[in-house]
Amino acid sequence: MIGYVTVGTNDLEKAAVFYDRIAELLDTPRMMEDPGNFIAWGKPDGGAGIGLTKPFNGEPASVGNGVMVALAARDEDHVKAIYDAAIDMGGTCEGEPGPRGEGFYAAYFRDLDGNKLNAFVMKMG
């Protein structure tokens, strides 16, 4: 159902380094770019992508309270690798990798602009 999610940034160049690394770990390339304004990562035939943009209205980007982008990982080791990369690049911890209920394993972090993300894997049955 979801085609893509966009998060705001106040420093596109710096934030792009953060998201390029996370996208690399998810085997997801840049698929669209408007230099200086917008970058999108995704696969035309894949699931939902993520976009990074300076706000169109020219006002500073801010974080939405209760808003989070969830990134599907392959397994628990992949969750940890994504989390570790985010923290190594200056992201902040919002919950270290671990189980979060039956069949759900996740790690939570914020990007350089304070946008909340998680990497997760679900094991049903």
Write the layout of secondary structure elements.
Elements: E1 4-8, H1 12-25, E2 30-34, E3 38-41, E4 49-53, E5 68-72, H2 76-88, E6 92-99, E7 104-110, E8 116-122
Parallel strand pairs: 1-4, 5-8
Antiparallel strand pairs: 2-3, 3-4, 6-7, 7-8
How would you characterize this protein structure?
This protein is α/β, with parallel strands linked by helices. 22% of the residues lie in helices and 37% in strands. It is built from two helices and eight strands. It has helices at 12-25, 76-88, and strands at residues 4-8, 30-34, 38-41, 49-53, 68-72, 92-99, 104-110, 116-122. Strands 1-4-3-2 form a four-stranded mixed beta sheet, covered by helices on one side. Strands 5-8-7-6 form a four-stranded mixed beta sheet, covered by helices on one side. The two termini are 24 Å apart.
